[in-house]
Each structure stands twice: as structure tokens, then as C-alpha cells.
Design a protein that fits this description.
Low-confidence stretches: none
Distance between the termini: 6 Å
GO molecular function, one term: carboxypeptidase activity
Shape: globular
InterPro entries: Carboxypeptidase_A_C_sf, Class_I_gatase-like, LdcA_N, Peptidase_S66_N, Peptidase_S66C, S66_fam
Family: Belongs to the peptidase S66 family.
Protein name: LD-carboxypeptidase
Strand content: 15-25%
Strand order of the largest sheet: 6-16-15-10-11-12-13-9
Number of domains: 2
CATH class of the largest domain: Alpha Beta
Radius of gyration: 18 Å
Number of strands: 16
Structural class: alpha/beta
Pfam families: Peptidase_S66, Peptidase_S66C
Mean pLDDT: 95
CATH architecture of the largest domain: 3-Layer(bba) Sandwich
Helix content: 10-25%
Number of helices: 8
Order of helices and strands: EHEHEHEHEHEEEEEHEHEHEEEE
């Protein structure tokens, strides 16, 4: 089930179901509001978006209230999460999934928000979007690719391609908007060749693994699995987290894997990643593409969880096409 696409004039509600919006700089918030307003959207905020405790989050009750209010409000057409964090999975058993199913809306974010996105998709069938947070729109330089992919995903019904960006950056832009380094990108990295079709399932790997064995974990059957992790990940943790997914009963039917570019502090080199992947007999028969534009390294594409997709990887050429139909 796809939510109605966003149109100029639509209201986008900003909520903070993980870390509080209070940690964002005022200039970053102002720029994000300006960017979205210039796209023709009206930006509003959940009443508890700035609430926070000693963990820089808010109570479960406050976060659930903002989530439910956003889906229940008939004027709200899209929902953006403020930022990621660590604790959105606290909310899962308190969510009114019937309310969400009855009021399908664009719901977009990434990182820790993966727990909510996968749970909503599993419990309601609503396609959710792994893509920019509200805070992502506060990037001063290098937002063009992120913006274009977001608009392709949430304002248009046409198929679109996750093409490699011309450049990428792993700077702490939120600390210094001007001191940025952009690296040239020459396509994605093919670890294994092949072609496949399937349903996009994935997001942040360590967050996804929090759902294993619960009612909130979607099946991996016939999936194109897309995975990313942040700078807290390293070769050994990524290896075991991936292996944990591969032990799931339906993992044998995964059709392809897309891996988002790792942050430099992860120290996961292409060589290390290749060795990890090639050590897994379970994956020998499927196409695997790494350094794809999603996750914690900018810019990022928007991927609809639950949508059909096709993947091709031969030689140095890759194709990742997203369908936007039921």
C-alpha cells in the first residue's frame, strides 16, 4: 500500500520518535524549514518534538502522542522524523497500527527510524521511506542529489533509478557547514554480478536486527535487502550482524543485497567487505552491490520499503530501478 504522493501545499509534520529535536542547531532547523517551504510544503512540528530527558529523548507517551497525532490529523500528508538515535523500538508495542492503516501517509527517515518503518510495513502493509530526516534538509552544501531522490520517491508515481552520485562526503557537516570535503565517486562497487527482482526490505542493519523474533519483523522472502550502518559499526560487528540475518528461515530466498557506503570511522574497506561477503556460502548465487548512496554518508537516495525493485550488476555497470506500484 502506497500513501498518496505529496503535492505542493501539503503539510509535512516533523516528529522526534527517537532523539529529541532539541539537539539540532537553530540555523539548521531554519534552513530545513526554508528548503521544504520552497518546495511548496507547509511545515509543522509535533508538540513534543523538543521535549527531552537526560538521554536527549522524550517519554514513550510523548513520542507516541506525536506519532499518532501526525497520522490522525487529516491536514498532514507527510511525516518526517527529526533525527535518528537509539530508542525508537521502545514505541513498537504502543503504536496504534489500525490508526496508521486507516490514514496512510508518507513516513520518511533512516537510521534508528528503521525499527518504526519496518514495523509499520509489517503490521499495515504501508510502504515507508528510508530517506532523509528533517534535519537532513538543513545541509547547506551538497543536498541536490538527496533532494532529487526524495522528490522522485514521494511526489511522483514513475519508476526511478538509484544512480551513483557524482561526489560523496562523510564530514560532520552539522558542526561546520563550510569546512566540507567532497570525494569523487565513479559508480558503485560490484561484489558479485547478477540480476534480480524483488521487494525492497532493509535499512539500518543493527536496528533491523532488534526486530528479529518479534511480530514487527517483515519477512525476507524474495527480498532485495538493503543494509547500512553508522560509524559505530566495524568489520567484525557488521559480519556478525549480517550473519544473524542470514540465519533467518526465509533468508535463503533473498534475491540481492545492496550495501550503503560506510563511514570512514568504521574502517570497513572495500577489501574487508568483499572478504566478509565472499566468506558466506549463502550469498554466492546473488548480485551484491556496495557503496550505494544510502545511509549515514551523504548524499542519500530515498528507498521505499516494500516497493518492487530490480537490480543488475555486470562488469562495472549497475542498475537499481524502483517501481512505485502495488
Amino acid at each position: 500500500m502506497f500513501a498518496p504522493k505529496l503535492m505542493p501545499g501539503d503539510e509535512i509534520r516533523i516528529i522526534a520518535p527517537s532523539t529529541s529535536m532539541i539537539i539540532l542547531k537553530e540555523a539548521q532547523v531554519d534552513l530545513a524549514v526554508e528548503r521544504l517551504t520552497n518546495l511548496g510544503f507547509k511545515v509543522t512540528f509535533g508538540k513534543n518534538a523538543d521535549a527531552h530527558d537526560e538521554f536527549f529523548s522524550s517519554t514513550i507517551k510523548e513520542r507516541i502522542e506525536d506519532l499518532h497525532d501526525a497520522f490522525a490529523d487529516k491536514n498532514v500528508k507527510g511525516i518526517l522524523t527529526a533525527i535518528g538515535g537509539y530508542n525508537s523500538n521502545q514505541l513498537l508495542k504502543y503504536i496504534d497500527f489500525e490508526l496508521i492503516a486507516a490514514n496512510p501517509k508518507v513516513f520518511c527517515g533512516y537510521s534508528d527510524i528503521t525499527a518504526l518503518q519496518l514495523a509499520i510495513y509489517q503490521k499495515t502493509g504501508l510502504v515507508t521511506y528510508s530517506g532523509p530526516h528533517f534535519s537532513s534538509f538543513g545541509v547547506k552544501h551538497g543536498l541536490e542529489y538527496t533532494m532529487e531522490s526524495f522528490l522522485q520517491a514521494v511526489t511522483n508515481d514513475a519508476p526511478y533509478e538509484i544512480i551513483p552520485s557524482d561526489t560523496w562526503s562523510d564530514d560532520a557537516w552539522y558542526l561546520d557547514q563550510e569546512n566540507r570535503t567532497f570525494h569523487e565517486q565513479e559508480g558503485y562497487t560490484i561484489i558479485q554480478e547478477g540480476k534480480a527482482e524483488g521487494k525492497l526490505i532493509g535499512g539500518n542493519l543493527c536496528t533491523m536486527n532488534l526486530l528479529q523474533g518479534s511480530e514487527f519483523m517483515p519477512p525476507l522472502k524474495d527480498s532485495i535487502l538493503f543494509l547500512e550502518d553508522d560509524e559505530e559499526s566495524h568489520s567484525r560487528s557488521f559480519d556478525r550482524d549480517l550473519q544473524s540475518l542470514l540465519h533467518l528461515p526465509d533468508a535463503s530466498s533473498i534475491k540481492a543485497i545492496l550495501i550503503g557506503r560506510f563511514q570512514k570511522n568504521s574502517n570497513i574497506t572495500d577489501e574487508a567487505l568483499r572478504k566478509i561477503i565472499l566468506s558466506k556460502e549463502e550469498l554466492r548465487h546473488i548480485p551484491i552491490i556496495a557503496n550505494v548512496n544510502f545511509g549515514h554518508v551523504q548524499p542519500i537516495a530515498t528507498l521505499p520499503i516494500g516497493a518492487a525493485a530490480s537490480v543488475k550488476a555486470y562488469g562495472k555497470e549497475t542498475e537499481i530501478f524502483i517501481e512505485q506500484k502495488e
